[in-house]
Amino acid sequence: MQKKILLIILLFQFSAVGCSSDKTTDILKQDIAHLKTQMVDTQKGNTDAEMRVSSIENRLQNFEEKVKDLENQVFNLSAKVEEGIGIEIPAEVEAEKPSPEPEVKELPSTQNTSKEPFSPQPEIKELPPLQPEVKELPPPPKKEEIAKAESKPPEEIKVAVTEEKKGEDELKRLKALLPEELYKNAYDNFVFGEYDKAIVAFKVFLDSQSKSELADNSQYWIGECYYAKKDYKTALSEFQNVIQKYPNGNKVPDAMLKIGYTYYALGDKKSALNELNDLIKKFPKKTVSRLAKEKIKAIEKGK
After folding, report:
1. 6 lies in some domain
2. Confidence of residue 97 (pLDDT cuts 50, 70, 90)
3. How many independent structural domains does the chain possess?
4. Does residue 95 sit within a domain?
5. Within 13 Å and on the Cβ side, how many CA atoms surround 214?
6. Pick from 223, 224, 206, 207: which is nearest to 215 by CA?
């Protein structure tokens, strides 16, 4: 009887242990399934994030390309507008205005301008020379004072030193700019008529970005600055540099057109006509060729 009771107790304990292990296994299976679900969701989230980042990068790249294309179009349109304005008024008609004569103030006349008859001035008798009052002379300056006085630069030198310091500071500021900012700074100065500042900025850009796609543009706008300043000899040299240094650049046709304009401004009509005709032969479908034909007509009418 006692053995039967012990067997029953042992069987009950084994069954209890089996039930508890089944429950533990079920819980573990549920946890594993939950973890797998979380891992799948995480992977999906990472994939979605990567796709979004890739999409944003593609959009940014397309936007940058569109901005670059728009900038090139603006630059070309600006050049064409300026060149169109230059053709409408032939150079031979636009005579230089005479510089105003300096105002000359009339000195007081020593002649008798009154209506009264001239009356002789009374004779002035020579007075005896006055004896100058002798004052005690100050002691001679010391060597240190003389050296200090000699070391002070005159006002003109002070102004020159100040301007040179400003120029050095401006160069440092320009060199610290990013290439895009530097080019925009130079072009803005050109648009607002600050030609000297524009020339300096474009040259700084060329010094550091000689291989840039905008290098030929910078060289061209330097020529435009000198042309606007009516420094035609320097402008001619700068326009010729565009063709010599960047023969495959997009500014070659524009440079050829402005070379023709510049020759004409210098009074060399023959060279102007040769350059403009050469432009029409090389780039017959370009807008600048139409401008060249109009300029040729204007030159021929002025003969």
Report:
1. no
2. very low
3. 1
4. no
5. 26
6. 206
CA of 104: how far to CAs of 101, 108, 112, in Å?
A: 9, 12, 22
162 is in which domain, residue-wise? 156-301
Burial readout 142-162 (b: 16 or more C-beta within 10 A, e: otherwise)? eeeeeeeeeeeeeeeeeeeee
How far apart CA 195 and CA 186 sit, in angstroms, is 9
The yes-or-no verdict on residue 116 having pLDDT over 50 is: no
Whether residue 120 is contained in a domain is answered as no
Residue with tokens 């050109």: 190
**Cβ of 175: how many Cβ atoms within 10 Å?**
12
Give the pLDDT band of residue 7 (cuts 50, 70, 90): low
Q: According to the model, what pLDDT value does residue 57 have?
A: 75
CATH number of the structural domain spanning residue 238? 1.25.40.10
**Hunting for tokens 């090139």 — which residue is that?**
72
Q: How far apart are CA 292 and CA 273, in angstroms?
A: 9
Asked, for residue 248, whether it belongs to a domain, the answer is yes
Say what the pTM is: 0.49
